[in-house]
UniProtKB/TrEMBL annotation:
Region (Disordered): 1-27
Keyword Oxidoreductase: yes
Organism this protein belongs to: Trichomonascus ciferrii
Protein name: homoisocitrate dehydrogenase
Any GO molecular function: zinc ion binding
Length: 1109
């Protein structure tokens, strides 16, 4: 073309080429429009701008590479080697029964791993850069070309596709072999050959004619020439038929001397009379011979009946006389063998045998039932059908086959059994028979929602995950501010570009907007933080410094609005127009009963007080000597006791004392003095005057319990402080040394006394709750704690006896008398029982126990993974409010619904207590870093707001807002969040990253029980139900009726729950003592119950923990 160009045409083209070259060499930009892939690869690799798809790193001339032979994509050898080796280990990557790995770009399957760095053509390992082509050996490529399949690539070793063959092909004969020609290799017809178009002229198979086709390959075929011929019977003469349809000639001769050669059959019946002159020949066109038409029905010598068992002579007593006379039948069974193998059951007969009437018992098509069927039915290939519907799973594993009497059911069920067996044995190699018969291949449309959340899968119903959504939008995407654009087509589910420009929206309040980046319309702008003065919800107070966006403001004070019953509303600041006051008053009634006491039962406005008083009164005999406590008799008259003999003895002694001048009120002081131990006496004798003074002060201290509660002594020497400690122990007092020398002194005080409610509940709760009592009773005196215990009733067993799971008396005693409680276990039924509801759930509501706190901590040397987390679970709402209903749908099926309630108040206070716990744990870590695996406090908010955007979204936002509001109170505290399903996965995979986890009721319940598996069992994990004014320690395990009474239930969770209760009551030191003893027991691992692999009893474990105090 250049030779035919004029100078004017050639010059502009050369200038354009020079511009192209300069733009490539400058490296500023490449015009790749008209470049070959080989040149593009060479240019980008030399410039170090080619990207590996696996590691996204840049590939240059010094890299080690491997190229796909299909898409020519280039990868780093180390990346693709690791990619291939990992894929070949996975049994799921099977192609044609072999393990394979696929190119990340085009998914071409390979069966061998990549291990070496070779040049593009593969001849040289570790090629050296020659300056011409990166990663090339510099030799001729030589790879056999797909375009011809004969020659190799003549280019120098190169990346990318090969050029077309430029060689001259071999000389080729035409199809008939008479001529020879030669073409360029790419034009040579290797497969089809070529024809010279001359006539073949070869002799055909008939030997008489020649082939009249043009030059062709293969045999010439049958002779097509038309030849005049006569049929065998002679009825069709001189008929032209193709030569290849003629057979060898057959001579026919008849009696009248006529003869001919027959070459084909005309297909007509012969129709000639037999020699009898009565019957005609029924055969089709055939050659004729003289005397060949003898009647086949003529009498034969020793002729037999049709069944062949009896001669005609025996039947008739003579032979047949002519062909017209029928062959007689005998009276014997036919017994001719039928197609099915049975004999004919009819009597001797001349016609064809009837169908077999023999009956067989065979299985139906699906093999589940037996049927009696005629033999002919079965021999025809038919099977009986039952009415059983097939139950096999379709290949999609979502639907079942509904075929009646499916013949493939047993095969499908057997395949399913083998699949489950391999799953149970963890032997699923991926090579099992996955071929599904066509009848069990589901033909329904999948219709599942794809990962984009907008479109449905249109594939035939299938097992496993659906493919990614392939829908795309043809419209460009513009961000709200218009500064960022993504051009179409946009694949569904694509991550839209993040705009880096500021958002231009104006807040509806009119305040200056918070600076933030542009965002989609479904994402809210940051809430306005502008400080304002707003009235609280109840309208009693104006709150300053409230952020503009907050619509609910609380003054934190009790409502105190008078209720119809006369009590006041106990709700915290609320708007009466939006939230009504307390509808069910829980305050004590306090109305005066007939007996003069006050009714302590919960308010029962509108109903009369039940005249039943629970007060204990003391009644005496007339002389006042006898006294007895009893329940109030509900009247003003309490009655009295009768005097007995002891009264007379007391009266006599009184008169005798008066006669002797003895003061009976001080008589006991004349008893022998208390005997001190020898060690105390030895210390006392060192300074008796000081000892007498201290004894006198302690006597005065204990005789005046209503006075001061603490007795503080001045600084003194160590042996004097020792005397005070020893005397305080004798007086059952608590003593503590304070300050450093020389100002060290002793403080003596009354021991702290607490009343603990014990609610064993059901099952093993009656075995493990006493463990908490024994632990509290065994605490050393230096801890300064004394406890009294009140045994209370609750549980399903109590409900079955009395119809009440949680008596009012239990709640009243806990509210009015107890400082805390220990709750055992409840055997809650799995189905609904009329009138029954869980007592522990009711206690949480009635006592305001809004938080369930569950520490989960591993023991060094015992548990595989380091774990030290506290799960804080909201206790009063979510699905546990038990507002459920069932109803009938339009199609008559049952529908059940439950309400999931999340409130801002409950979410805020559960977040606040989680922050408190995290901060206190950090303070303990600062005092002793060895107590935890964490360095800084962290609260993880768990939710499912990506699906439940309203309920869980409110929980998430309120807890995060609470953190912002209280952030100044918790320096160093951080928060993060986890979707609950991700939380479960990460909790078991890396539990060491979690410190404090806060969650709604349902998620917290599941997470806390599951976390127990990280540290052994539910028998070692404690919990506490915590409110503002009360706490209940509660082990995590159930009632376990299967081991009740065997003394093998694990008491560790109860003991730890006891320590947790003490911690929230403010008794930190005794709680640490109990936890240290439990940790020592578990770490040693010698005294353990069977659930931890030991053989010790419940009692043994309790005593082993106590001895470590």
């Amino acid at each position: 073309r250049l030779e035919n160009m004029t100078e004017e045409e050639a010059v502009p083209r050369l200038e354009e080429d020079e511009d192209d070259v300069s733009s490539v060499s400058s490296g500023s930009s490449y015009d790749l429009t008209n470049m070959e892939l080989t040149d593009i690869l060479k240019m980008e690799i030399e410039a170090g701008e080619y990207t590996c798809l696996i590691c996204t790193g840049e590939i240059g001339v010094q890299s080690k590479v491997w190229s796909c032979s299909t898409c020519w994509r280039v990868y780093d050898v180390e990346c693709v080697s690791d990619w291939s080796l990992r894929a070949l280990k996975d049994t799921k990557n099977m192609v044609d029964g072999k393990r394979s790995w696929k190119c990340p770009s085009c998914a071409t399957a390979y069966f061998d791993p990549v291990v070496d760095y070779r040049c593009w053509c593969g001849k040289v390992q570790d090629p050296v850069y020659n300056g011409l082509m990166p990663h090339s050996c510099g030799q001729t490529c030589g790879v056999k070309l797909d375009s011809c399949g004969v020659h190799g690539c003549s280019s120098m070793c190169h990346p990318g596709p090969h050029t077309e063959c430029t060689a001259i092909g071999p000389a080729m004969l035409c199809k008939c072999g008479k001529h020879k020609r030669q073409w360029p290799c790419v034009m040579t017809p290797y497969d089809s050959g070529w024809a010279c178009q001359q006539l073949c002229n070869e002799v055909l198979p008939c030997g008489e004619h020649r082939c009249r086709q043009p030059c062709h390959d293969g045999l010439c075929g049958k002779c097509p020439e038309l030849v005049e011929s006569t049929c065998y019977c002679g009825k069709s003469r001189n008929v032209k038929i193709p030569c290849n349809q003629r057979s060898a000639g057959s001579l026919s001769e008849v009696r009248d001397g006529d003869s001919w050669l027959g070459f084909f059959s005309c297909g007509e019946k012969c129709g000639e009379f037999y020699d009898c002159g009565v019957h005609k020949c029924e055969l089709k066109c055939h050659s004729r011979q003289k005397d060949d038409h003898q009647c086949p029905r003529r009498p034969q010598p020793e002729e037999k009946c049709p069944c062949g068992k009896t001669t005609v002579l025996e039947v008739l007593g003579r032979e047949r006389e002519s062909c017209v006379e029928p062959v007689p039948t005998c009276t014997k069974p036919c017994d001719k063998k039928l197609k099915c193998g049975h004999g004919c059951m009819s009597y001797c007969h001349a016609s064809e045998c009837p169908p077999c009437r023999f009956v067989q018992t065979v299985k139906c098509a699906c093999g589940s039932q037996m049927f009696d069927v005629p033999c002919g039915f079965q021999s025809a290939g038919k099977k009986p059908r039952c009415r059983k519907r097939c139950t096999a799973m379709m290949d999609c594993r979502r639907h079942r086959c509904t075929e009646i009497c499916c013949e493939h059911e047993q095969r499908a069920l057997e395949r399913e059994r083998l699949r489950k067996k391999k799953l149970r044995s963890n032997n699923n190699t991926g090579t099992e028979d996955r071929v599904t018969e066509p009848v069990h291949q589901c033909q329904m449309v999948c219709n599942k929602t794809l990962n984009c959340g907008k479109h449905q899968c249109v594939m035939t119903c299938h097992a496993g995950a659906c493919r990614p959504c392939l829908e795309s939008s043809s419209e460009d995407y513009h961000c709200p501010c218009g500064m960022t654009t993504l051009q179409a087509p946009i694949r569904c589910g694509s991550m839209l570009p993040k705009c880096r420009y500021p958002c231009t929206r104006t807040p509806p309040c009119g305040h200056p907007a918070v600076e933030h980046e542009c965002h989609a319309d479904d994402i809210e702008c940051p809430k306005c933080p502008y400080p304002m003065e707003k009235p609280c919800a109840c309208g009693k107070q104006i709150i300053k410094g409230v952020q503009c966006h907050r619509t609910y403001v609380s003054c934190g004070k009790q409502c105190n609005k008078e209720l119809p019953c006369g009590h006041v509303c106990t709700k915290i600041c609320h708007d009466p127009a939006k939230e009504s006051c307390v509808t069910k008053c829980q305050a004590a009634c306090k109305k005066q009963l007939e007996c003069g006491h006050y009714d302590k039962k919960p308010c029962h406005h509108g109903r009369e007080c039940v005249n039943l008083c629970d007060e204990q009164v003391t009644i005496t005999c007339p002389c006042g000597h006898r006294q007895q406590k009893q329940q109030c008799p509900r009247t003003a008259e309490w009655g009295s006791l009768e005097c007995d003999d002891s009264c007379a003895v007391a009266e006599r002694n009184k008169k005798l004392a008066e006669a002797l001048g003895i003061d009976t009120n001080t008589y006991q002081d004349s008893r022998p003095p208390h005997e001190y131990n020898e060690d105390l006496l030895d210390v006392y004798l060192a300074d008796p005057n000081f000892g007498d003074m201290i004894e006198s002060q302690l006597i005065a201290f204990v005789q005046n319990p209503e006075g001061k509660r603490v007795l503080k002594f001045p600084p003194m020497k160590s042996f004097r402080r020792m005397l005070i400690h020893m005397l305080a122990q004798e007086f059952d007092l608590v003593s503590q040394a304070q300050d450093a020398e020389p100002n060290r002194n002793v403080v003596v005080m009354y021991p702290e006394k607490g009343i603990i409610g014990l609610i064993p509940g059901d099952g093993i709760g009656r075995e493990v709750i006493p463990a908490g009592q024994q632990v509290l009773e065994s605490l050393p005196k230096e801890d300064g704690l004394r406890f009294e215990f009140v045994k209370l009733d609750a549980g399903f067993e109590l409900f079955k006896k009395t119809g009440v799971a949680l008596p009012d008396k239990t709640v009243d005693v806990l509210k009015n008398e107890c400082d805390g409680a220990l709750f055992g276990a409840v055997s809650s039924p799995t189905t609904k029982v009329a009138g029954y509801s869980s007592p522990i759930v009711a206690l949480r509501k009635k006592l305001g126990l809004y938080a369930n706190v569950r520490p989960v901590k591993s023991i060094k040397g015992r548990d595989a993974k380091d774990t030290d987390m506290v799960i804080v679970r909201e206790n009063t709402e979510d699905l546990y409010i038990k507002e459920e209903k069932t109803y009938d749908a339009a199609d008559g099926t049952k529908v059940a619904e439950a309400i999931k309630r999340i409130t801002e108040t409950a979410s805020r206070r559960i977040g606040k207590i989680a922050f408190d716990i995290a901060y206190k744990r950090q303070q303990a870590r600062q005092l002793d870093p060895s107590v935890s695996i964490h360095k800084t406090p962290l609260v993880t908010i768990t939710h499912k707001s990506n699906v439940l955007s309203a309920s869980d979204g409110l929980f998430r936002e309120v807890v995060k807002q609470a953190y912002k509001d209280y952030e100044s109170q918790y320096p160093g505290l951080a928060i993060n969040e986890q979707i609950v399903d991700s939380m479960v996965y990460r909790m078991f995979r890396e539990p060491e990253i979690f410190d404090v986890v806060v969650a709604p009721n349902l998620y917290g319940d599941i997470l806390s029980d599951g976390a127990a598996a990280l540290v052994g069992s539910l028998g070692v994990v404690p919990s506490a139900n915590v409110g503002d004014n009360f706490v209940i320690g509660e082990p995590c395990h159930g009632s376990a009726p299967d081991i009740e009474g065997r003394n093998i239930s694990n008491p560790i969770a109860t003991i730890r729950s006891t320590a947790l209760m003490l911690e929230f009551l403010g008794f930190t030191q005794p709680a640490l003592r109990i936890n240290a003893a439990v940790d020592a027991n578990l770490s040693e691992g010698k005294v353990c119950t069977p659930d931890l692999g030991g053989s010790s009893s419940t009692t043994d474990v309790i005593q082993d923990v106590i001895r470590r105090f």
